[in-house]
Amino acid sequence: MPENRADITVAHQIEFAINQLESISLFDSVADKFLKELFLGGGNISALAGIVESDPCLTAKIFSVMHSKGVVFSGIGFSAAQMLGKLSLGEIQKIFFSHEIDSCDSRAVSKKDLILHSLAVGISAKAISQAVSPRMDGGLAYLAGLMHNIGVLALYDSMPKSFDSIAAEAKLNGSKLAAVERKYLGVDHTIIGKRLAAKWNLPKQVSWAVWLYDKNTEVIAQTIPQARIAQIVGLGHVIARLAEIGNCCCYDEVIWPTELIESLGLDRGFVEQIVGELAGYVKEAGKKLGFDSADSRGRYLSTLNKTAAKLTEQNSKLENQQGQIVTDSMLWNFAKDFIVQAAGDVPVVEIAKEMTGRLQKFYQTGPMCLYLLPVDQSKIIDAVVAVDAKNGAKAVIVDMPESVPAVPAEMFREFGMSSASVRCDWLFDQLDVEFDHDKTLVVSLIGGAKAIGAVVFEQRYPVEKGKLFESLKVVTSIVAGILNEKIELYKQRFFSEQFAELVGDQVPAAALPVEPSGWHEASVKDDYFAGLVEMAAGAGHELNNPLSVISGRAQLLIEGESDADKIENLKKIQQNCEALSQIIIDLLSFAEPKSPRATKVGPMQVIEEAIQLVMMKKAVSVSDFKISNELEDGRTLFVDSGQIASAIANILHNAIEACGEELKPIEINLGIGESGDVVSILITDHGCGMDTDTVAKATHPFFSAKAAGRQRGMGLANARRLIELNKGTLSIDSMVGQGTSIVVELPLG
Asked: What is the average per-residue pLDDT within 392-401?
């Protein structure tokens, strides 16, 4: 048994050691089944998926490997077959051999029992989710249940002696495993599981369940929708214990979960049915893992011997297959290189110049001109001309033709190629470059289901027309897609600049009331704020589509790329798209929040929920908040409690940030407002404070007094938005070096 209680250093050391885990060892019967199917059974994906879906250790490794390949699964509609289908047989073999095999039969707690418990929780969670709501994803609930105890499995592997002692003490004292873990390790398996879920890139909903399943999920789920799945897994955990299936090393008394059942809208009879039938379902699932056979160790060794010769043969075949893989064609390399070059904030004309030079060199043409149709109502066309590869391309401007279409009608809606003679005379007349009209072709650039321009070039070397058509169709479709995205981004940037201009149109400091003591009060006109909201909604929706297209294209290229540097560049594109998408989500949340569902609620309940939300994000405790309640008993608010708790939490979060490292208690005072029909909530911090200009901008979207890249600046903007939706008001008083006071007034119930 551990001799000493853990200190913070021990907890950090344990978390560091756990974080080095790349995988969890396989139980020998699981290894036998997987190895047998992988090498001796033909590697049937469906059969392998059945084993993976029943074993948390293999499932975790698969998610980790898929993420390293740039493939992200949300967990919705969890399917191991779908995930394995993305891997080659060689990659699956590599996954298997990355695992150690659990061979300790003498331990008091067996890995088999730990896995059986996880299986039981996964099966229960799936049944519960489908009963709670037909719209809930049973596959995701099963995955969360299966993975809920990965922290226990990690401790079981990485520190066997300490784990066995901790489990023995929990059994001796009739207590939960987590309580004894915290006593001696300073951390418990739920936190370790959460860390591993992030490291191995399990879906976020699964991470929530791993962390919160044994907490007070009924309360947490009321304020955090993501915790709903933890609530379901928590009930599955209790059901598995009631059914006495497997072992989770918790030895406290199992109490019938009446409140948890009711909070999920279920009845006792349904849960009793699951308890009664669960053993049969788990037994069937356990057969996939070989739990129904004796001498699992002997069977694994026998399979391993039979596989030895097969491995040599298979490796030989794999080498032959590797030698037969054809390197990327010149055409594919051309397209990939161009896409990487076009990444980033590159103007449309510069991309067109780059493309024209590359096309001319690749197809060894004579003079070439690429032109783009105007994006507005102007009659001016942006064009790029390249005389020869040596001198490069230059940008020019030409006038739209009046008597003929700029792009021939027959190729405006779909890719086409034809002689440029007559069709492009309007262009030849405006260029100072000589084209041999008899040898010059025009091809359309199709982006977004219509032509965005065309390429005109003089063909120097004879190429079979069909091959040239197919080749140009592929190349121009990729380049036109990128050019179209850049054009769309240009339009969105113009729109966003209008939005930024509106945000930057600050209320003059002179218009703000100033107290003699130097404190400043923020005031923003309603019509200004309404315009800001409308612009935010428009900008959010307009920016989202092109970002999705860019991210999708990058993902397609990653899947077909073998060059590590290019893969890294493409992943950076994806990461930046994800960051921008999150900004858009923040923007839309600000612009289009859900309509409030007002009910009567106690003011202290809202404050307590807000503090709980803050504590989940910041390293603070209840003692960091000083609450003074001057309201009479029975006073209520008439608001949407979830929205107001979120708004207050944002204000408290800002207050904590303003205090920096020297956090003094945040003061929260509740009383009746001057009008007599509102509750006044005064929140005061003793942080850095704000000057007049900062106060004026504090509730603007994306404004932050911190350095760029540190905060998105949506906290107070969202707070004000939600408060005003609930017919309340928010005002700010602040003085540099003294602190900030924010008054929130909300209608009485």
From this structure: 88
